[in-house]
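JOB MANIFEST
job_type = single_chain_structure
chain_count = 1
residues = 312
[input]
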Amino acid sequence: MNKKNVLTVKNLNKVYSKKGSKQIHALNNLNLEVKEGEIFGLLGPNGAGKSTFINILGGSVIKTEGEVNVWGFNLDKNPRQVRASIGIVPQEVNFDPFFSPRKLLELQAGLYGIREKDRITDTILKLVSLEAQSDSYARALSGGMKRRLLVAKAMVHQPPIIILDEPTAGVDVELRNTLWENVKSLNKQGVTTILTTHYLEEAEKMCDRIGILSGGKLVALDTTENLLERIQTKIVYVTTDKKTNINDNTFESLKVISNDEKKLILSYEKSKLNIDKIITEIKNQNIKIQDISTDDGDLEDVFLRLTKNQVI
């Protein structure tokens, strides 16, 4: 069954004009769709347009032109409903340190006009594992608890879409893992998640689909699996009982990275050469293969090539 789009962006542009200088295109004809219930990654180097895009959705930046629809609401016609459909978790910790988590969530719910009887403060505190600290000063919370409190604040109005802007920037590995468990938990409950991150390994592990921005343009939009399939270069590590006679001319696209006494490292293009041919060639030289492993590359390879305008 095809899932419906919860976010549709068509020809979205944001141009900043500075007096006496040329125009800056922060977003340049951006088109993308996010489907209900998915974890969607938005990647790109600094200045690619990620924050501009999130701020347009959140209402703090006005788009130059284009169409944005969130949960069936048009940003131009129904800006309040669009904002009500989104919960944004910012990079920076931005709450009063002398308020308790419970007080902060109650205050946030009030700002959204949610009546006391309709608030789910206790449920949210439990969901982000802060029920034990619900009445402590926010300043007394650990770094991880503060991050989870930011997630809780974004959820008080029960939005169907949560946007996490670099949620794990500058945090340790343990905290990062805890936050991602939170994201997975929310996702299982049907919350659509859009995240920006600099940690490509994280995006590879977490995201169903990924969009890559560069210079305000969308240079890739596909499933994580399909993006990884774009990498043609494969690296092979072979341990043998003696040195091989393989060189760059043995097969088309083959490159010998190193050929030591008992260790051979090769690269080749998957579309031009099959690893079986390499194995057969080594065996034909009466050489025993003791170990063999391959490296297919990762999302970082895709990211670097696309953001450097290289075709892959």
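[summary]
The longest strand covers residues 5-16.
The radius of gyration is 25 Å.
exit_status = 0
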